[in-house]
Each structure stands twice: as C-alpha cells, then as structure tokens.
C-alpha cells in the first residue's frame, strides 16, 4: 500500500546514486529506462538479473506516467535511482502537482487500453508512494534487495564503493 505523505527512506548506507533530468517526451522516457539499467549494471546488478528487469519495468512505468500525465510544456522530469545496502529506490519527479496517482491500484477492466502501469509497480515494488515537492511531485518505489536472487547485499556491496568515495555531484539526492 502506498504512502501518500512520507516516503519510506532507508536508514542504510547509500552505495550509489544516479540522478538525471530528461525531456518529458517519449524519447526522454526511453533514455531514462536505458540509463537506469546501464547504471545498475555498472553497480553490479547484471542486465539479465531479476532485479534489473524489475527496476527497468518500474522506471518505464513511472517515467511513462510522468511524460503522459505529469507533463508541463517546457518542463523536464527527473529520474533518480539510489542503491542502498538493502534496497533499490527509484524516484520520478514531474512538475504537475494536481495530477497524482490514484490511492488504489485496482486493475482496469479487460477492455481498457490503459491503467495498468501502477498495478505493475505495486506488484514489483516492496512499497511505493507519492511525495509532494515545492513544484510538482515525486512518485517513488522501493525494491528490497534480499528478495532478488543474485542481487543480495553481499553481491552488490562487494562490487560497489561507498557513497563517500563518489564525486559530490553523483551523490546528489532528488528533492
């Protein structure tokens, strides 16, 4: 069940963060998905792993919603992927405050052409929710690493360096 006011922030160490602003277009959405998967692979989460596939699906659905429902002419959206020692957090921020996801993630009728994106996010994520911003909102989802074989704490932590060792620009958090 999503949290509507406060995201569940992991208290564990941040191992890696990727943050990028992209144009609110289908091309920007496609690039967000590809960049997220590229960075996950660089962090030791293999392209063909279950965790990488789930993260890509979540990024794809959240950025598609940002481009489709959260788009404001001339404004970008932002994607942030943060690897903690026990979770992978995905955040997508857009500039539309008044368009928030529904409280429930009920599947649409069989003949409906849309409305399945957040159902997919809810099925894959350990938790998800929406957080307001000064301008717009952030829709976030978290994946628990131990739930994904081959991407547990020891595998990921063994191939990563602490956030303190990363350049400051890379450590930037989405707020």
Label the overall shape.
globular
Uncertain regions spanning at least 5 consecutive residues:
1-5, 149-175
Most strands sheet: 5 strands, antiparallel
State the end-to-end distance.
22 Å
What is Rg?
15 Å
Estimate the helix proportion, in percent: 25-40%
What's this entry about, in short?
The chain is an alpha+beta fold. It has five helices and five strands, in the order βααββαββαα.
List the helices and strands and how they pair.
Elements: E1 14-23, H1 26-42, H2 50-68, E2 76-84, E3 87-94, H3 117-124, E4 127-132, E5 137-144, H4 153-158, H5 168-171
Antiparallel strand pairs: 1-2, 2-3, 3-5, 4-5
Helix pairs in contact: 1-2, 2-3
What do you see in this structure?
The chain is of the alpha+beta class and 175 residues long. 31% of the residues lie in helices and 23% in strands. It has five helices and five strands, in the order βααββαββαα. β4 and β5 (137-144) form a beta hairpin. The longest helix has 19 residues, at 50-68.
Give the key terms:
disordered N terminus, disordered C terminus, 5 strands, five-stranded antiparallel sheet, 175 residues, 23% strand, globular, alpha+beta
């Amino acid at each position: 069940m999503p949290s509507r006011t406060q995201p569940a922030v992991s208290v564990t160490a941040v191992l890696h963060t990727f943050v990028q602003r992209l144009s609110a277009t289908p091309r920007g959405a496609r690039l967000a998905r590809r960049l997220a998967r590229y960075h996950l692979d660089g962090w030791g989460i293999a392209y063909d792993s279950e965790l990488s596939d789930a993260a890509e699906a979540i990024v794809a659905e959240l950025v598609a919603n940002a481009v489709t429902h959260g788009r404001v002419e001339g404004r970008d959206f932002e994607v942030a992927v943060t690897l903690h020692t026990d979770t992978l957090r995905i955040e997508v921020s857009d500039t539309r405050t008044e368009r928030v996801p529904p409280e429930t993630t009920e599947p649409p009728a069989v003949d409906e052409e849309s409305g399945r994106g957040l159902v997919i996010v809810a099925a894959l994520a350990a938790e998800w929710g929406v957080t307001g911003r000064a301008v717009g909102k952030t829709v976030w989802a978290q994946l628990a690493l131990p739930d994904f074989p081959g991407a547990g704490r020891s595998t990921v932590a063994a191939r990563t360096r602490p956030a303190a060792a990363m350049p400051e620009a890379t450590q930037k958090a989405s707020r």
